[in-house]
Design brief:
221 residues; alpha+beta; Rossmann fold; 47% helix
Length: 221
């Protein structure tokens, strides 16, 4: 049998006088998946937080053969985690989502750059929409609403691109730039290369900022 990549032995945790974990032990070998199943309050999240050193517990935790303690856990530098927040891309497979979060420091630096560019694209578009309104109050309201709405319409746009390929050049598709940097196979969905997405982001940022400035000067402040 393969060596255990994760070992949890006799884990105990109480909050005040209320026990949450009682003598929990299990192993996860390389290439296998372990699922924690239980009702709300059963201690699933507590186990995950204990493994990640987010809270102190009684017992023994080893990751890749190295002991993990609440106040000493250098092994966690090589561990990826996501607790209680489903930050997943619904239009790609589960395996591709895992690959997206499993890249090294160089890839993470690229993702940061891509997210920075996407943030500027979002801000420039929201500013343009806000500048179309003469009322300052309406402009602020539309800007705030637009910030949240633009992120939600991206998924339906992906479906339209599959049917109408020419829509790949629309600005909403450019928001996939940071995701595609971490997951090259996403180009099958965006229908654009990383280079095309990069220059597309820059072009739209400049266009939206210039148009936003022109409309802002014309409206009454």
């Amino acid at each position: 049998m393969a060596d255990a990549i994760l070992t949890v032995k006799h884990l105990n945790k109480s909050y005040g006088h209320q026990p949450v974990l009682r003598d929990v032990s299990f192993e996860c070998t390389q290439g296998r998946i372990v699922g924690l199943v239980g009702a709300n309050g059963a201690g699933k999240t507590t186990i995950m937080k204990a493994i990640l050193g987010l809270l102190s517990t009684d017992g023994e935790i080893q990751i890749a053969g190295e002991s993990m303690q609440f106040d000493h856990h250098p092994i966690l530098a090589t561990v990826g985690s996501l607790i209680e927040y489903p930050s997943l891309y619904p239009y790609i497979s589960g395996w591709d989502n895992l690959r997206l979060f499993a890249d090294g420091p160089d890839a993470q630096a690229q993702l940061v750059g891509g997210e920075f560019l996407n943030t500027w694209l979002l801000l420039s578009l929201v500013l343009l929409i806000a500048a179309l309104f003469k009322s300052s109050g309406a402009a602020v309201a539309v800007g705030i609403i637009g910030y949240f709405v633009l992120g939600m319409v991206n998924i339906p746009m992906i479906a339209l691109i599959r049917k109408y390929t020419w829509l790949k050049w629309n600005p909403l598709n450019m928001f996939n730039f940071s995701a595609q940097l971490g997951l090259p196979t996403l180009s099958k969905i965006t229908k654009l290369t990383d280079v095309q997405l990069f220059w597309g982001n820059l072009a739209y940022i400049i266009l939206f900022l210039v148009l936003g400035l022109l409309f802002f000067r014309r409206r009454e402040v």
